[in-house]
Amino acid sequence: MEDEPHHCFSFLPTFLPLHILIYTPNPVLPEHSRTKSAAVFFHILTMIISRFLRRGILTSTSPTRRRSWWDHVTPALKDPINAVTDAFLADPCPYKINLGVGAYRDDKGKPVVLQRVREAEGKIGATNFLESTSTAISSKLVEESAKLIYREDSDVIKERRFIGIPALSGTSACCIFAEFQKRFYPDSTIYFPDPTWSSHRNIWGDAHVPGRTFHYYHPDSKGLNFVALIDDVKNAPDGSFFLLHPCAHNPTGVDPTDEQWREISSLFKVKNHFPFFDVAYQGFASGDVERDAQAIRIFLEDGHSIGCAQSFAKNLGLYGHRVGCLSILYNDKIQAVVIKSQLKQISNTMYGSPPIHSISLVSKILSNPNIKALWLKEVKVMATRIQIMRATLREALERLRSPLNWQHITNQVRMFCFSGLTPAEVDQLAKEFRIYMTHDGRISMAGVTTKNVDYVARAIHEVTASDRDTKILHNIGAYKVNTDICSTSLGTNKTRARGMNLAL
Amino acid sequence: MASTLLSLASATPSASLSFHEINKGKLNLGCINKEKPNPFIKAKSFGRVSMVVASNVSHFEGITMAPPDPILGVSEAFKADDHELKLNLGVGAYRTEELQPYVLDVVKKVNKLLLEKGENLEYLPIEGLAAFNKVTAELLFGADNPVIKQQRVATVQGLSGTGSLRLAAALIERYFPGAKVLISSPTWGNHKNIFNDARVPWSEYRYYDPKTVGLDFEGMIADIKAAPEGSFILLHGCAHNPTGIDPTPEQWGVIADVIQEKNHIPFFDIAYQGFASGSLDTDAASVRMFVARGMEVIAAQSYSKNLGLYAERIGAINVVCSSPEAAARVKSQLKRIARPMYSNPPVHGARIVANIVGDSALFKEWNAEMEMMAGRIKNVRHKLFDSLSSKDKSGKDWSFVLKQIGMFSFTGLNKAQCDNMTNKWHVYMTKDGRISLAGLSLAKCEYLADAIIDSYHNVS
Predict the structure, then answer these.
(1) Is B311 close to A134, i.e. CB distance below 8 A?
(2) pLDDT tens track for B81-127
(3) What Cα–Cα distance (Å) separates residue A62 from each residue in A55, A57, B230?
(4) Which member of B192, B305, B383, B444 is catalytic?
(5) Do A342 and B66 touch (CB under 8 A)?
(6) Chain B residues with CB inside 8 Å of A125's CB?
(7) Scanning every residue of chain B, which has its alpha carbon at the shortest distance from the alpha carbon of A303?
(8) Is the ipTM of this complex over 0.85?
(9) What is the Cα–Cα distance from B127 to A208, expressed in whole angstroms?
(10) pTM
(11) CATH 3.40.640.10 domain position(s) in chain B
């Protein structure tokens, strides 16, 4: 049974590359009898080796001793963000720091469950969930989510010109929209800002919607490349789909100003583009949910009918509960029912509905004005801590007389800071200083605490040492590089860390 | 592409028909006058953009209504009926004798426990809660099973049965392009939709024999044999939905023989483990038989029925591979598929299951409650059978009610007879003749028997 090629797929990985080398006429290989005999020899050798390999792959308890169905399945690339967490978890060093994943931490570096959430959990504790109440709770969630993002007194809400479904946080809201877009605009593409959240590409890619990019981040200024952005929006074919981050752009933290948003919105009207907003950080950028929704409000003023993916992972701290909302604005009621039926159909074949526990929590918190007000205070506390850490980190770097410009740390918003560190520098931070972050240099500010901010600053200063020579000095005047730390004999990594006067 | 469209068009019910129409250039413009061209759908050919038009016309004018879900439609019609003797035998959610929804005592206990523990709400890894993945695989295959011990099972937490099936469907689409899934005729309504949306072609194998109101075993075997080599055969592990008709152990053996012979891959959907017979092990027998033969198997699990966690969306996809190395690779690809769908699965349902199965006292309690639920269904079946046999003087054999297993029963009634059940007797059921025994109480068995006898004999 082993010798018969039952299934062509599993044959290929073992044999194909060598077969190609030996059997296809290769213009590089000389037509020589010695080469031909060598080829035959290697072919026989390959067959013997692969036979041994296959024996090794099949376990002895597999009575049929068949090849596996899954031989041709290659290991998937590790998710870049989770890979950081994995590396961090695997590190036994006691003073390691995780600046990778974007989950909020308090000043002690601990995960936080919001007080409002704990209270809501207590209330829903032993509720019997009937199918009928499930529907009611889902509708409530959609209504409250829409109020939060579109503003309670807006026309869109008053006239109920939105349709939505609960989703498994922001990811699934984007995923359902991507499928919806593919279904009704099968030839369309989606424009992402460059850069964007690492999952966006795969979300639309798996829906077979090709992704394009528009200019966004300016690596030199570490700010917005507005001129190029406008150009790209102009040059895109009319009626293109765009993915926009309304606040706290992930991963750069660079947001357009209100004026810039107005200009983008007008251009969108002229070009008839469809704006789809991925709202993952409402409340987290400025501490004020209204302020953070400003971009969307600007688009609504201009009469756009937009789509929105909302996540309650960060601002309600409900990471593991997977709850969010996908909403689409419409112009007439017939359309509403139609759109909703399609969204439900798409989500029914993916997961059915999000867990009732999650939906209930959000619904309870948002629908009660008193609880909601208290929640908004908690959001402000979280956002404020992040802002303070940004300022502290920048000050620490400036105190170290780093000649590089670190203004972007406080210019950028919300949880992430696009540090400008190179992949080599990121690797060095991990290897020598046990500080973990994604390769694009994105720092999750939530991982920075008053205790570790100095260490982080010094480590960043250290690894950017080589940059001092090669990079243009942005600051006016010459700074004497403080070599006291660097000049001490730096034997082991531990010594280095100790030499930095750790206070962890 | 054409074959995919054909299978989309033949599926019932499916929203993909509108997709089909758009592709063929026919647009249902909804509320817009058909004479006026929609600048959004045909943006390329028109190339003109008018700001006035843009602000009034939606991008989504051309979207048509998706067909309503047939099962939920029954519940809605039931709610609208105010007849005092009405009976909802539509949706498959367990009800007590008083026809109330039931939250298991163990679930209440664990919910309280979790509240007290006050654990954090951090993201789970993409593959889900490790403690849950461990217990769910052990529950299905048996903790002592060599496949578990040798780490040959790739287990990923999924969003109940639906989400788990979808992950497997996406894996099939990616790694076995063009391979077909064979689905029983009939089967759970969402199966076809899941494979359609995952772009996996499917066809049916004969299963239900309306003449015997039993299994068309020969037809099933013939169709599985006739399928192209390397097809995926979707099997219901126990308590077939919607018929309630399961193969006998001997028949399972023959099915396994044919699948091996044709080099197919068995794909189990196990939504009722423990709920069918009351015993977790008995209900997993079919899956375990296939695994014991050394076959590579896909198995989707759901805790919606057996733990009553319908709304918490907790289940798992398991792929039994021939080596731990293959299992690792497959798991990594399942994660790659899940990440863009929802990043990582929800934590609450997973914690409930992990806590119940992981605690021997709670596990025992769960087993007892499951026996109680399965027991109630069995009692109801008996009572219904007795009522039918005693009231019906025609000599018709109603024993299929006893032979069938699980929540559902295929009555053998045709559409017109089902309509009569609803219109005359206010008994709500799906039009394929399926009744959900979970929605039947002992007290109402006689009434139901009257309805069935009347519909069967007096309506054609």
Answers:
(1) yes
(2) 989 889 999 878 899 999 888 889 999 999 999 999 989 899 999 99
(3) 11, 11, 19
(4) B305
(5) yes
(6) 111-112, 115
(7) B55
(8) no
(9) 24
(10) 0.81
(11) 123-358
